[in-house]
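Supplementary Note 3. Input sequence used for the single-chain structure prediction.
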Amino acid sequence: MKRVVIVRHAKAVPYGYEDDFNRDLRDRGKNDAKRVSRELKNLGIESDLMISSPAKRALKTARIFAENLGYNENKIRQEPDIYHGLTTADFLELIQSLPEEAETVFFFGHNPGFHYFVQNLLRHYNLDMPTCVSVGINFNVDQWQEVEARTGELGFRFTPKMFK
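The predicted structure, written as discrete structure tokens, is reproduced below.
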């Protein structure tokens, strides 16, 4: 089994859109990311690889998750195309090119793209994607190249509100 975990960045400051790339997390966002990532750790969910948009709010969310999940934050791979926009086909190509030794891969990024990816990777998904939501998608395959659209099963969906 291969697992993709899609994490929308945590709550960011509501200003700075003229420099959207450098928008920072709010204190609430930092706390939400800590809550959700600690819960994942408590459930024994680990990451073999983390890939993030290089935008400040996504990368900071990834670093909080890395710290709480025991993943070396210096190994977080930054993927500029996540920020600039990928189609679902592009995202599938990214997944299909993942190293085979990785079983669970976390992606950190933005809506609306991440909402579309979750909808298009899962067989059924009609929920929203609030900030810091973490959606685990399980694929019953042995190799990443076998992952196809609408073949994933929902493993979990955690939002910060669930742990307050």
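The chain has a mean pLDDT of 95. The chain has five helices and six strands.
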